[in-house]
Structure formats: C-alpha cells, structure tokens
Design a protein that fits this description.
Strand order of the largest sheet: 2-3-4-5-6-7-8-9
Number of strands: 9
Helix content: under 10%
Strand content: over 45%
Structural class: mainly beta
Length: 167
Amino acid sequence: MRRLLLLATSLLLAGVGAGAGLVQSSAAKAPVAACTIAGTAHITPGLSTTAQAFTYTFTGTFSGCKGGDGSVKSGAVSASGSGSGSCAQSKTSGNVTVTWNNGSVSTIPITTTGAAAALKVNGVVSSGPFAGKKTQALLAFEAQPQQCAAAGGVTDPTFNGVGELGE
C-alpha cells in the first residue's frame, strides 16, 4: 500500500495548475486544458505516523497537454509551501510556477488536502497564461508503508497524476 506524501504540491497541481493539468471544480463544464503530471517531492521533516508541521518543495513535468489555444503542450513545474499533517492526512498551502514549452510562465497559489497516498490540489492561476482560471489536480504518491513508521519518515516521494484547468 502506498502512503500520501503531502507535498504540495503541489500543483502539483500545484504545478499542474498553471493550465496544464488542473481539474475544474465543476464537472459539468469541459476543461480548458488537461495534462499528465509526474515528479518528486521533498518533505522536511519527513511525514510519519504523527502529525506535525512540515515544509515541501516539488519539481516535475506536465506532458500530453490538450486544450487551451494549442500552444501549451508540456511544461516544467516547481512548487514550495508548508502545512501540517502525517502520512494519514495533511493540509498545506504554497505557490507553483509552471514554465510552459512555449516559454511563457504561469504562477498559481495553491492549497492541498491529503488522505493516505492521494493529494488533491486546488488553485487559481494568478499570472501568466490562464490567469484567473481555476485549477484542480489529483496526485498519487509512492512510498513504502514502513517509511511512515521509520525514523525520518517519508522525505522524497515520487508522484503521478492528472489535472485540468477550468473556466
């Protein structure tokens, strides 16, 4: 079984948010853009079975992006933030920067909610392509269950996910 590493992640979608891979909060509307997300988080101190405050950074990629005006096909994402929680559940806030394949840059303030190995990322693009668009992503983190109980906890999990950018 895998445990969630609260990363933020970001942006993930944190990173995803910038339009590349975020999920619109309203399922009734078609997304403006959608992407596949992959990366690695760095969590300090590591997530464990005991809730505590922590910080995170995240780096990753968006790929296979569809939608938008067609100029965004992929991107590099980075995120950082802080929060509190454990391997079982967490909440964070942070910021994501996405550098798109066409050279443009989007920034996204985000919040995340984690439960076990799943992380939901929400945000609104604050600048760059897709400014004003809501974003949402779902990320799955990979870690061995025993890492949560080990000294140091989960510190460098990888993750994958999908997301959409909404209206």
